[in-house]
UniProtKB/TrEMBL annotation:
SUPFAM superfamilies: P-loop containing nucleoside triphosphate hydrolases. It catalyses: a polar amino acid(out) + ATP + H2O = a polar amino acid(in) + ADP + phosphate + H(+). It is a peripheral membrane protein. One of its GO terms (cellular component) is plasma membrane. Its EC number is 7.4.2.1. Pfam families: ABC_tran. Residues 4-248 form the ABC transporter domain. One of its GO terms (molecular function) is ATPase-coupled polar amino acid-transporter activity. It is found in: Cell membrane. This is ABC-type polar-amino-acid transporter.
């Protein structure tokens, strides 16, 4: 079974259709990189996966089921919020602006999900959080508050926090776009390691080097559609469509 399946997904904001029939399959352990110009719908597509946005037509299946909806007869009904929260816990999300809890240390940020949502015992949550912070190279920063960390360190805490819930898939929305250039590499390294460990990932990124090296599939989005998708070298080096070519010429 695919880990994430987008089936003819549409999304409108008012009269404006921003996703116009997205079809994409993410297999277990695959890394799919979504590239495309600003405003093309990449963030909206990611946000629909964990039901931060409602779709207007089509369906997204995560491990074979919808996060935000239940089927009632031949209708889709929005699921209860408590049920959505439960289903969502298997999806890790990392945002451009880190979104850490500012009043919590790095360790507390990473312990928060297991403590509050999984009701894990404190000692267990702490041991796990220490392990994850070690994995992202922050064993010596566990007591620091976000304001005492660089952007790259904050983003690595955010990745550890998402991993604390043992997600089946990790969604990254331009995780390095807010970082000073010299801090981008440390975050991409953590993401590469995660990919090599077999994590299923959807990554919105402008880092073409990362996409080329790590992705199994690159999908180019423009104006609410996936213009082309395929192996990184095919899409990035031998694009079939003029829109892809002109985008790549602008970003590289
Ligand atoms: P990208 O991430 O590729 O830059 P987005 O998914 O953020 O693109 O945006 C796609 C389009 O949807 C844009 O035209 C944007 O203005 C619009 N949009 C995004 N969020 C909203 C919203 N909450 N309300 C209205 N329009 C929105
Ligand atoms: Mg975006």
């Amino acid at each position: 079974m695919a880990t994430v399946e987008f089936l003819n997904v549409h999304k409108s904001f008012g009269d404006v259709e921003v996703l116009k029939g997205i079809n994409l399959t993410v297999q277990p352990q695959q890394v799919v990189c979504l590239i495309g110009p600003s405003g093309s719908g990449k963030s909206t597509l990611l946000r629909c996966v964990n039901h931060l946005e409602m779709t207007t037509a089509g369906a997204i299946l995560v491990d074979g089921r919808m996060i935000g909806y239940d089927v009632k007869g031949d209708q889709l009904m929005e699921a209860r919020q408590s049920e959505i929260n439960k289903r969502r816990s298997k999806i890790g999300m990392v945002f451009q602006n880190f979104n850490l809890f500012g009043h919590m240390t790095a360790l507390e940020n990473v312990m928060h999900g297991p403590l509050k949502l999984l009701k894990a015992p404190r000692a267990e949550a702490e041991a796990k959080a220490r392990g994850l912070l070690g994995k992202v190279g922050l064993a010596d920063k566990i007591g620091n508050y976000p304001s005492q960390l660089s952007g790259g360190q904050q983003q690595r805490v955010a990745i550890a926090r998402a991993l604390s819930m043992d997600p089946d898939v990790m969604l990254f929305d331009e995780p390095t776009s807010a970082l000073d250039p010299e801090l981008v590499g440390e975050v991409l390294e953590v993401m590469k390691k995660l990919a090599r460990s077999g994590m299923t990932m959807i990554v919105v990124t402008h880092e073409m080097g990362f996409a080329r090296e790590v992705a199994d599939v690159v999908a180019f989005m423009d104006n609410g559609v996936i213009v082309e998708q395929g192996a990184p070298d095919d899409v990035l080096l031998h694009p079939q469509h003029e829109r892809t070519r002109s985008f790549l010429a602008r970003v590289s």
